[in-house]
Amino acid sequence: MNDVQIMTGNSAAAIGAKLSAVQVVAAYPITPQSQLAEILSQYIEGGELRAEYVRVEGEHTALTVCISASTVGARVFTATSANGLLYMHEQLHWAAGSRLPIVMCCVNRGVGAPWTIFNDQQDSLAQRDTGWIQIYCRNNQEILDTVIQAYRIAEAVYVPVMVCYDGFVLSHTMMPVAVPAAARVREFLPPYQPHTILSPEDPRNLNPVLFPWRRENSAGVLCDGYMEMRYKLQAALEKTPAVIQETNRDFASVFGRDHGGLFWEYLTEDAEFYLVGLGSMASEATKAADMLRQEGIRAGTVGVRVFRPFPAQALREAFQKARGIVIFEKGISYGYEGPLCSDLKAALYRAERQAPIHNYIAGLGGRDVKARELADAARASWQAMEKGIHEQPTSWLNCFTG
Amino acid sequence: MPENLFKINAKEYILPGTRACQGCGLSLAYRYALKALRENTIVTLPASCLCVLHGIYPSTPVMIPCLNNSFASTAASASGLVAGLQAMNRSDITVMAIAGDGGTFDMGIQALSGAAERGTDFIYVCYDNEGYMNTGTQRSSATPLGALTTTTPIATKQQHKKDFIKIMEAHDIAYLATASPSYPIDLYDKFVKAKKIRGTRYIHLYIPCPPGWAYPPKDTVKMGRLAVETGIAPLFEIENGRFRFTGRSKSMAERGNRLPVINYLEKQGRFRRMNIEQLHQTQRWVDGKWQEYLRRAQE
Q1: Residue A65: its chain B contacts at CB < 8 A?
Q2: Chain B residues whose C-beta sits inside 8 Å of any chain A C-beta
Q3: Contact between A208 and B90 using a beta-carbon 8 Å cutoff
Q4: What is the pTM of this model?
Q5: Mean pLDDT in residue range A205-215
Q6: Which of A276, A298, B101, B212 can bridge B142 by disulfide, Cβ–Cβ 3.0-4.6 Å?
Q7: Closest C-alpha among B81, B131, B68, B86 to residue B104
Q8: Chain B residues with CB inside 8 Å of A67's CB?
């Protein structure tokens, strides 16, 4: 039986972690994540969740605590935003390199300098190449469900998962959320059974120094070098899309909610023009697609859930019929364009039809993004594309550019 | 004292073939520390000389489970091990975090202060060889006044070393001790004691380093003894706020036979550029610290 409650995105994430029966939580407060750390403290001190809460002195330590606790076999959780995530950067690599199934929520916020506490996705987008799986959520229900799914995925492929959701837009906005029964979550997500744990019964030296080449151990077995280990991380990420889709299917059959696996689509059956984004940006784009439909433009929306590993093949198939694509992004690879745009262009390189792609940077540092503005930008792009203008410089939406 | 020698755990936890330098003071101290802590122990350490001592994958001479972590995170890693073991109902295991002076005085201080303030149940060991020796003898905040390093190559270090023990004492931790590989029984006893105490325990190892300090590898034990005998590295422990000299330092305090610092400084190439004023400053600095410890021992 589902119990529907009205709650913020941060509450949904906290309930997701509680239902996942996490055993160690380490988090450091940062707006807009703080409420999540507070709610989990409340659960643990109040006895609702049997877990160790380490009240760390910084984000670098928060993730280190998760790394080490995971190494001895515990299911761990952390959460952060913006500069906190950047402060973790070294340990993001360490966590993925250690192949630990850590789950973290990134409550997306713009990064300083100058300071902003408001939402964009530059923080997690800038962590693209750390080896983490990144899943972007579009509403509070999806946050709760994705945290639970994230443990299934992480523990299947031994790669950490970052569950990303937009600060304030979701973190502090109340929405109805169906809370699944704990017993059913336990069935869907059994306790973590690590393949290796560090213990005195089985002494090992984990994460030691490696030479560039492969090397024999004392029994004469040739063991991996650094590069083989890096290849294995990449290979694990390459098989992750299938694991995410399977997890999504299983979740949908148990709980009746399908969030789309790698990405979700809206009005795309007959679409020829696609509005694309990550997280709540894509939700907003569905309204823009509705507006364009009323004007007779056959528009649809694709919300990319999984940014890493990038579902290139599945997206290539999804955009087969596209005659035009616009990508709205709350982040940029400075000196080039939006990172989702670059990746999508690369994915379509071998497509039969090369749809024109226009890229809009929008909503940085919490600047409001209205569906009307997305519709206006998309319409202008569509008209240009119809005239054969395939390329246009990356545009900054609703921004004074002189 | 033969009966003291016999009580030391005969089992070796470090097999031959470490990658430490010839005459490494750390390998000696680490050997006795592991003997005292025994099997039911997990070690965590950062990029450091000790990380090198532990060998190159896939072989290691050390038979105690070990987690390597990034430079700033030794005590953070210990916090995670302690929390994880607690969650897994394995609180019987001793967690030892061990890092050099660079990873403790400088980069690791935030994580260590945080873990100590939280009263994390672990032993933190700083092996202080007074510089970034693993990367080739660069200056750290533990490097003494007047020492040449590769980043103070001409003018020598212009400041005294940081009094890190005071910083740790300010955290009101359960147990704090200093030890030297030149006095292995004193060192062993302190680790045995630390293992029995709950809460945050801090042990400061004063580690002579032949390549970093520029003396012949055969003189490591002698250099450690001189450090103690000149009062540069006094041996003591602080338990529940009570200060107590131990071993050689205890008899020195009673007899008043402390050697002048020149006896120690003149034997190391790193002090060859030390000027007379720096020598006097060092003597006054050591005298001041020694008097402070004497006062505390009499309290």
Answers
A1: 76-77, 79-80, 83
A2: 39-42, 44, 51-52, 54-60, 62-70, 72-73, 76-81, 83-88, 90, 93, 110-111, 113-114, 117-118
A3: no
A4: 0.97
A5: 95
A6: B101
A7: B131
A8: 69, 77, 80
| pLDDT, chain B, mean | 97
**Are A24 and A56 spatial neighbours (Cβ–Cβ below 8 Å)?**
no
pLDDT over threshold 70, residue A2? no
Separation CA B246–CA B133 (nearest Å): 28
Residue among B63, B67, B78 whose CB faces A198 most closely? B67
CA nearest B213: which of B161, B158, B264?
B264
The interface predicted TM-score of the complex, written ipTM, equals 0.97
Rounded Cα distance, A61 and A66, in Å: 9
What domains are defined for chain A? 3-188 (3.40.50.970), 263-396 (3.40.50.920)
How far apart are the C-alpha atoms of B231 and A212, rounded to whole Å? 45
Q: Of the candidates A195, A193, A74, which has an alpha carbon nearest to the alpha carbon of residue B83?
A: A74
| pLDDT at residue A351, rounded to an integer | 86
Whether residue B77 and residue A67 make contact (CB cut-off 8 A), yes or no, is yes
Residue B3 confidence (pLDDT): 59
pLDDT tens, residue by residue, B36-91: 999 999 999 999 999 999 999 999 999 999 999 999 999 999 999 999 999 999 98
Within 8 A of B66 by CB-CB distance, chain A residues are 203-206, 208
Condensed to tens digits (0 to 9), the pLDDT of residues B249-289 reads 999 999 999 999 999 999 999 999 999 999 999 999 999 99
Q: Residue B204: name the closest of B228, B185, B184, B178 by CA.
A: B178
* A residues 303..342 contacting B (CB < 8 A): none
Residues 6 or more apart whose Cβ sits within 8 Å of residue A91: A60, A63, A64, A67, B70, B73
